[in-house]
Write a structure and sequence with these properties.
370 residues, alpha+beta, Rieske Iron-sulfur Protein, 2 domains, five-stranded antiparallel beta sheet, four-stranded antiparallel beta sheet, 7 helices, 13 strands, 32% helix, monooxygenase activity, iron-sulfur, oxidoreductase activity, acting on paired donors, with incorporation or reduction of molecular oxygen, 2 iron, 2 sulfur cluster binding
Length: 370
């Protein structure tokens, strides 16, 4: 669009602007080159061919959405047979189908605009940006003119395939909502974790138990309950308590992933004199070793950024900061709830274990139930 102040006025003589009109061939517009018609403007066959190309792109997007759903239910994560060119078939095909579907919509819209929408030069006088009734009417007329120029009313094939592509684009998103959690998730499953009295803490990668003698002041480790981390042989051991009793049976793959997320903890050792001894948590540490949930109480990000001198733990997502020396209280940021703390104990050999589950729900504060 050309905004020319020295073109013939397009108004009603009272300074009110009207809807700008396309320049005719005989109009003189200083600075504008002569208009070059596109093939689709002068050749009906080229126009129809371009219309079919755009519609084909939108249809291809719909096909990709359907293939996304097929791939989602066909491939399983973690199975060796579900691989393709060395990559996990699930992630590979989900990414390809979703990406190609979105790309097809974008390319189709661009082709539609470049080849089929109205292609004329429009000149409009500069005018004050007043919100008068006349200007509002002018804007509405301009929007109507733009819709007319897009040809969406005259091209039902493009219109219908575009609407279909946009509708199908939402199908992968709806299907992927299943990954937010099991359909039978309940409040009780959110409030309770895998932890129970007598369950040992193990390193989250090696699966070895943590001994009090292994930690120096300032050390911070990521931990999990025993039974959620494979041992050196690759098996999930059934957790055994300090008295040799079996606490829980081994879990299947789906249960394992859910419980590992909820039960992750951090273990930190500080000087016992730095700990604020709250009346209800006087004996929750072992020689200055404290244990807290690893899940931020703001929106659930994993946290492990420790400031050794202040014993402050920082969440990298939104900078919520918790004081691990004072029952995990929030000292900065948007989190509205203290970090859940675990009551620790040690057996005769010095290995750390839990005295029970957390006494409050882990994760974002909105998980709490009355």
């Amino acid at each position: 669009m050309s905004d020319q102040s020295n073109l013939p006025a397009s108004g009603d003589g009272a300074g009110h602007s009207r809807v700008p009109e396309p320049l005719e061939d005989q109009d003189v517009a200083p600075g504008l080159p002569a208009h070059v018609w596109r093939p689709t403007d002068v050749d009906p066959k080229a126009e129809k061919r371009a219309e079919r190309q755009v519609a084909a792109l939108f249809i291809f997007s719909m096909v990709c959405a359907v293939l996304f759903v097929v791939a989602y239910f066909s491939f399983e994560i973690g199975r060796e047979i579900d691989t393709f060119l060395g990559f996990g078939a699930s992630n590979l095909f989900l990414g390809l189908t979703l990406g190609l579907g979105m790309l097809a919509i974008g390319v189709g819209v661009i082709q539609w605009a470049r080849k089929l929408m109205s292609d004329v030069e429009i000149a409009e006088l500069r005018h004050p940006a007043a919100s008068s009734e006349e200007d509002r009417e002018t804007t509405l007329k301009a929007l109507t003119a733009g819709l007319d120029e897009s040809g969406i009313g005259r091209r039902p094939l493009i219109r219908n395939t575009l609407l279909g592509a946009l509708a199908f684009a939402g199908v992968p998103l709806v299907v992927a909502l299943r990954d937010l959690g099991p359909r039978n998730m309940s409040a009780s499953r959110l409030e309770k974790t895998f932890w129970m009295e007598g369950m040992y803490i193990v390193r989250d990668v090696l699966g070895t138990r943590i001994n009090r003698a292994d930690l120096e002041i300032g050390d911070l480790l990521n931990g999990e309950p025993e039974g959620l981390v494979p041992n050196s042989e690759g098996h999930l051991p059934a957790p055994i308590g300090p008295n040799g009793q079996e606490l829980r049976p081994a879990l299947d793959h789906e249960q394992l992933l859910i419980e590992k997320v909820k039960s992750a903890v951090i273990v930190l050792r500080m000087s016992p004199g730095d700990i604020v001894r709250n009346p209800d948590r006087e004996n929750w540490d072992v020689d200055g070793i404290v244990c807290y949930s690893k899940i931020c109480t703001h929106v659930g990000c994993p946290i492990a950024l420790n400031e050794q001198q202040t014993h402050h733990l920082l969440c990298p997502c939104h900078q919520s900061t918790f004081d691990l020396a004072d029952s995990g209280k929030v000292v900065f940021g948007p989190a509205g709830h203290s970090l859940p703390q675990m009551h620790l104990a040690a057996d005769d050999e010095g290995y750390l274990y839990a005295m029970g589950d957390f006494d409050e729900p882990v994760g974002p504060s909105y998980w709490e139930r009355g």
